[in-house]
Amino acid sequence: MLWFLICVGLLLAGYFVYGSIIEKIFKINPSRVTPAHHMADGCDYVPMSKKKIWLIQLLNIAGTGPIFGPILGALYGPVAMLWIVFGCIFAGAVHDYFCGMLSIRNKGANIPFLAGKYLGQPAKHFMNVLAILLLLLVGVVFVASPASLLTNITTDIMSSGSVGAVNEEATSRASILVIWTSIIFIYYLLATLVPIDKIIGRIYPLFGALLLFMTVGMLFGLIFEGIPMFRSIGMDVDFGTFLQNLHPKDLPIWPLLFITIACGAISGFHATQTPLMARCTENENEGRFIFYGAMIGEGVIALIWCMVGLSFYESSEAMNAAIAAGTPSKVVYDSAIGMLGVFGGVLAVLGVVILPITSGDTAFRAARLLIADFFKMEQRSLVKRLLIAIPLFIVGFIVSKVDFQVLWRYFGWANQTTATVMLWVAAAYLYRYAKFHWVATVPAVFMTTVCSTFLFNAQIGFGLDYQLSVYLGFATAAVAVVAFFGLLKPIAVGDPDSEPST
């Protein structure tokens, strides 16, 4: 437990110390009028309190990534905890903060616009395609995972006899899965179309209560149920253990761990969600609390589920077998029921369910807005929103038929690649306006190496030899650095975006 508390303490210290440094480097302007006020439209630009925005931001960004990713990452051993902590502080929270603040400075602009402004038009066109692809994958993945968990709960209740006798065909898992999938898709369609404060702004506090119960409940289970910490790795833990690769299949830490644990450390999906809340933020001095702080909150959630993965099963082989039998959702279900009982476990699982649902609905909303911006279609009219939303959901339904494991691999790469581009956008902004750019440039180089190595080696990419892929990954990062400093030129004048808006 001591190691877990140290990790949580580091995350909190990161918010107060490193978060303050990032804020000073950016140089906020509290007197500048934000888009929530001077562009208010009653639909997407709606002023909200910072506490409500923080909660919505956390629910938006925390899908199944900070749960499924850390569970899968726990197979590598305690090293997963290191990536969650340091990745969150120095990469993920920095990524989210600059995305949110640059969006505020640019009238609530999305990531393709920011990429075009600070990196050039080719980057904008690339990000338009990548961001829409990522959002579509997120939406589909975040239908499948909560539908699977809800199906587990439903089939267990029915099998207990509490619902009464029904024929076997009607209660089959496949039928129930279809029903829950359809319900979630319908909710997504409604949440995508209506003004952001009508559904998302009103029911998210309830979802937040479930999230809080899930987080505290699983932590309670770890502490008070007598489960030995780090039981699955079968050894005493010291600092040296954190540097070992304990994966039962001996999969390499580099780069797989950094792709596997996505949303719990850094996630490009956040770059697609953060502008939604940037359009509702009332003052720039709220940025660190909302954007940097929500990422720290997600890091705590990721740590808890990583500890569940490291402790609940008697061995990493047993956990790997559970994952193979039913994806990480089976680990979630087994551990929640096992530690909290049926009633508490069901509530905890529901807390997990709401995370992907609250991310999936805003994923489709963000995709709609990206497409609308690209085609310059105003979104005040419901008819205009339907013209984009209906085809988007049809494509999403078709993609949902693809095998979940295949979808997750594509999602992981697209997710981290998007994060990499956003870090380069932040680095370009800082470099061009003579600010301390290394806080974004260093993690951008790191993530470039990770994503390119994975693409060269993975079967969904080029499928090259592992050692060759590592060399090519570092070479790609070197080329990116040369291009960054060679093509971008510092601007002598001050940053015009920091001046009070008119």
TrEMBL record:
Organism domain of life: Bacteria
GO cellular-component term (any): plasma membrane
The CstA N-terminal domain, residue ranges: 4-151, 178-322, 337-451
UniProt key word Acetylation: no
GO biological process: cellular response to starvation
Main location: membrane
Membrane topology term: Multi-pass membrane protein
Entry keyword set: Cell membrane, Membrane, Transmembrane, Transmembrane helix
Protein family: Belongs to the peptide transporter carbon starvation (CstA) (TC 2.A.114) family.
Protein name stated in the entry: Carbon starvation protein CstA
Biological source species: Pasteurella testudinis DSM 23072
